[in-house]
Amino acid sequence: MTKTQTIAQVSPAVAADQDRLLSVAETRQKLGVSHVTVYNLFKRGALPSLHIGRSRRVRLSDVVAFMSGTANSSL
C-alpha cells in the first residue's frame, strides 16, 4: 500500500471490516474492560459511539485506533 492509497483501494474486505459496528459487549471484550468502563469512555469522548435506536454501537476502526493509542485519550 502506498501513502496515497486508502485501505479500501488495497483491500475492500479489510475496509468493510473496519466499518463494522460493534455492540457494547463486543467492544468490552475487545478492550478487556467492563461495560461501565466502556460507557465512561463514551462519556469522556475517548471512544466515539453511535446511537442506533436505544443501543450504542462503536466502529471497529475506532476501537482499533483506541487500542493503538491514536485515539483522544486512554483508560
How is this structure best described in words?
The N and C termini lie far apart (31 Å). A three-stranded antiparallel sheet has the order 1-3-2. It has one domain (12-68): Multidrug-efflux Transporter Regulator, Chain: A, Domain 2. Strand 2 (50-52) and strand 3 (55-59) form a beta hairpin. The protein is built from five helices and three strands. The protein is α+β, with helices and mostly antiparallel strands and 75 residues long. 51% of the residues lie in helices and 13% in strands.
Short structural description:
By secondary structure, this protein is of the alpha+beta class.
Q: Give the DSSP E fraction (strand runs of 2 or more residues).
A: 5-15%
Q: What portion of residues is helical? A: 40-55%
Distance between the termini: 31 Å
Oligomeric state of this protein = single chain
- N-to-C series of helices and strands: HHEHHEEH
What is the CATH topology assignment?
Answer: Multidrug-efflux Transporter Regulator, Chain: A, Domain 2
User: How many extended strands?
Assistant: 3
CA radius of gyration: 13 Å
Global outline: globular
Question: Main β-sheet: number of strands, strand sense, barrel status?
Answer: 3 strands, antiparallel
Low-confidence stretches: none
Structural class, from secondary structure content?
alpha+beta
Number of self-contained structural domains: 1
